[in-house]
Structures are given as C-alpha cells and as structure tokens.
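# step 3/5: fold
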Amino acid sequence: MERINPDRGSYTQRELLPLLRVKPHVLRYWEQTLPLVRSRRDDAGRRVWSAGQVRMLVRIRHLVVNRGVSVPAAGEALLREAGGETARVKAGLEGVRNALVVLLIKVQSRAGGAGVAGEAGEAGEARRAAPREEGDPPAAEEHSGRTDCGIQVESLVDRGIIPPCPPDLEEGEYRAAPVRLVSRSGEGSPDSVPFVYSHLFARGEPTRVASMLAALIRYRVREPGPLVIAVPEGEEPLYRSHFPENALVLGVPRLQYGKIRYDAPTLSVLATIASNRELDRYMQRHDRETIYLWAADNPHSTVIDYLSARARHERSGLVLGVHPGVTGYRLAESAGLYLPVWRPRFGETARCGRWLRESGAPRYRLWLRDLARLDAPGVLVPAAAGPSVWRGSSWDAQVRLVWPDVPF
C-alpha cells in the first residue's frame, strides 16, 4: 500500500480510493457514520481529506475489513487509540448510541402559564407562584406536564401536546425531514443572543465538561456580549463557576416516561426557550428578540450569527443553518429563532417529531433538523475545514482531537 505523506495538504477521492481499496459508496457510508473522517470541499469543489483523516480511514479499513468490527465500533476504537482513553470507554459504548440517538418531547405554546423549564423544589414553586412582573413577555406553556422530576411525557400526551404512542410501534431507523434550501447566508447579525447547547449531548464528568466548554467558548468568542449556556438542571452552580457573571446559566429539565428518566437535550432547550421567565428577563435586559442556537464544540457551527436576521422574515420565525453534504444538505447545528413569531407556534414545533422504539422502549424523538417540517428553511452558512465532533462517552477525546490549539 502506498505510504501516506504527512506533509501533504490533502487527498482527493481519486487518490484516496486506491489507498483504501474500497468502493466509493463504502467511503460515503463511513463518512456519514463517522464525522471525524468527513471530507471538505477545496477551492475547485472537490471532496478532499487531510493526511490525518487518511490515516484514520486506513485504520478503519483494517478494523472493518480485516477484523470484522462494525463501523461505529471502529470509530470508537480509533478514538481510544488516539485520545488515550481507558477501558471505561468500552463499557460505555452502548451509552454512546443512546446519547447520539436523541429522544425528545415537547410542550405546547400558550400565553400566560408557568415555564416548562421552571425550577424544581420549593424555590421553583415559589417562583412559579409569584406574580408576573410588569413588562414580562408571556410564557409559552400553560399545561406543560412539568414535575419536580422533569417533564412528564404522559402528561403531554394526555393534553394533546404530542401524539400518543402507537400500540404497534416497531424498532426502526429514524429518518429526519429534508431541509429546504432557500438562500445563502448574508451578513452576520449582532442583534441576537447566542445560546450554547450541544454539550448537553456529551457524556462525561460534569466538572470536566463544564471546564472544557468554558475553554472552547473563551477561544471562539472574542467579543464580549450576552451569552446563554444551557446546562443540566441542578448543575447550575457548577457551571456558573466557569463563566463570567454576564452570562446566563440556564438549567434545562430531563424527561420521564413511565418509570424511566432520560435526557432529551433538544426538547429541553426548546421548551426552555419557549417559556423560561429568567430567559425572558435576560432578553429584555439586552433588548433582544432573536436567539442564535449554536454548538460551541463543533467547528462547523460558526460563532457568527448568519441566521437570526433571516428568521425575522420567515412565517415560522425559524431558520436552520446547513452545509452541503454527500447526500444532501447537512445541518450545521445552528438555528435562528425570532421569538415573537416562533413562540406561538411552539405546539406545532412539538409535533414535528415521532415515536420510535429503541432497545424495547418507546421514545418520542425529535432532532433539530426535524423543524424543517415547520416549514423552517435552510440557509447555507460558511463551512469550516476539518472534522466535526461525534458526541458520547468519547466527547472529551474528540474535542481534544478537533480543537488541538485550545488550552484545556
């Protein structure tokens, strides 16, 4: 096999296939499954891979073809080798799939009720019972199903907020909604509040996740300004110790279906944005009406907000950031929300997902990409070179590989 030149800038597909000795459709499948080896486009529009990615692909080929390992397991093995992770990662492989497969539920938008993502316990009850302050925007959800243990899924079904689980639900592959491209990005907007959320999908020791996230944001965000950090409910004090006082650290609840509690980051974040009064006051204080959802750990999710200005002109109040992909447009893990328009449509947003059965248990799942069903268009945003982050129990190792210059 030809040697890989580490000083070489990039390899095209024509140059890569003889090295790997696989068909083009196999290479495309590996890219779709493992974000670390996804190609980028050069100035001529060709798909290219770095020398480091080629070395990863050669190793993946050996594990898959010669050792009979599945592609996802090969990706995990590669990360353990590159990042020096211990055998504890191997024990968490099943959890990785559950973390990547985000199971989400939502709540309907109505004016005048308590926030969906309100605080638990006596302090939360006191806040929910407190009268609204003059000038407060209306909260989005009156009948949220919110309990001290999170959001009760059955309550959302009983109130017609989400559809009931079908009795004949079967295991199946999840197919997200296609995104409709409407335009390329224009100028960035300084009039939104950045809202960081993607780390909620990561698994790891909370203090470590918080400190690494703070280092990423310090590295990427050069201009001081308003910033919202979504965190697991109950971990607000931990995260506040890592961020400046002007940032809003906002707890988001978990879900409970039957006796099972589980994380549903996208649902929890959207429910919080739709109804949380603390967020309302923060937006008012900074005189903002739009929120820019972005992923601090993903280099393809740009810090510059190219979306919120466009969201003001959409009837859904929502746009999604996208990049060109192998099989269509790929979500850039970013979205713009114009709250005066989007909040009244939160109930429709909740019904964009669907029920699936996974590992024998029914879950109502919704991805950010599914909001395309709300007639949310895609806006083409600038793409970064290099791989993305594949979240799960290996998040720590992947972030270090993708962001080698960040002083963690």
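# step 4/5: annotate
Confidence is low (pLDDT under 50) at residues 84-148.
# step 5/5: archive (pending)
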